[in-house]
Amino acid sequence: MLTLISLFLFLAIFGRLLLFAIKLSWGIVKVVGFLVFLPAIILGLIFTGVVYVALPLLLVVGLISMVVAA
Predict the structure, then answer these.
(1) pTM as predicted
(2) DSSP 3-state assignment of 46?
(3) 55 or 65, which is more confident?
(4) Spatial separation of the C-alpha atoms in residues 19 and 67, rounded to whole Å
């Protein structure tokens, strides 16, 4: 019986730690993606000449994401 209680507590504690680690790593991936991939996409659009179409689209998407996040 003591083994089952210990196992339950072990899973409860390390389950929470695992969920915290997954949430933390997802947040880090989002920040790195924002800092690395967004400028790369914008530079690619500038070099290909699609910036005239993409810039208004990026502004609209950016405003919508800011409103939704708030």
Answers:
(1) 0.49
(2) helix
(3) 65
(4) 28
Q: What one-letter code names the amino acid at 70?
A: A
Residues whose CB falls within 8 Å of the CB of residue 47, separated by 6 or more in sequence, listed in order: none
The angle, 0 to 180 degrees and rounded to 10, between the axes of the packed helices 2-48 and 51-69 is 150
Six-digit token pair at 47?
Answer: 């070099």
For residues 33 and 41, the answer to whether their CB atoms sit within 8 Å is no
Please state, in angstroms and rounded to a whole number, the distance separating the CA atoms of residues 58 and 24: 27
The rounded distance, in Å, linking the Cα atoms of 14 and 37 is 33
Averaged pLDDT for residues 10-21: 90
